[in-house]
Amino acid sequence: MDIIFEILFETKYKSIAWASTHQFLYIAWKSFTTSDKYREAAMKQVQYVSEKKAAKILYDLTQFKGISPEDQKWALEVHIPALIEAGLRKTAIVYPRDIFSKVAMDTVIKQSKGTTVLTSRNFFDQEEAIRWLGQD
């Protein structure tokens, strides 16, 4: 599967890229960071969803180390609604094998289900996630 990525945002803790060949944002969390940095990077997602008119995001959380309960609440109340308002409609989430990181993300996802127009599915395999994102 040949995908061309344009790097939009890169730090030691997060990457955001545009997959122009498949029309989705690719977001990879690479390490733990502070709450301020987490929120700043999360709002970059909103910016790029709007700029690229990206209705789809592939989240690569295989290196994700978790977020605080306060940031989980913020994601539900601020970040996810902002993404949806910017045009996001579908997310594929590639989970880490680390059970603690998975639990942190499960909490946010479970609490957001039923409250959004967002279609989301979880994966352990990135290629499978990309195939699913391509289905309309």
SSE string, helices as H and strands as E: EEEHEHEHEH
Report, as a whole number of angstroms, the end-to-end distance: 18 Å
In helices, the fraction of residues equals 40-55%
Low-confidence stretches: none
Proportion of β residues?
Answer: 15-25%
Strands, total number: 6
CATH class: Alpha Beta
Mean pLDDT: 87
Number of helices: 4
Instruction: Report Rg.
Output: 14 Å
Strand order of the largest sheet: 1-2-3-4-5-6
Report what the structure shows:
The mean pLDDT is 87. This protein has a six-stranded mixed sheet, sandwiched between helices. 29% of the residues are buried. It has 136 residues and is of the alpha/beta class. 43% of the residues lie in helices and 24% in strands. The protein is globular, with a radius of gyration of 14 Å.
Describe the protein's topology:
Blueprint: E1 5-10, E2 14-19, E3 24-29, H1 35-52, E4 56-60, H2 69-86, E5 90-94, H3 99-112, E6 119-123, H4 126-134
Parallel strand pairs: 3-4, 4-5, 5-6
Antiparallel strand pairs: 1-2, 2-3
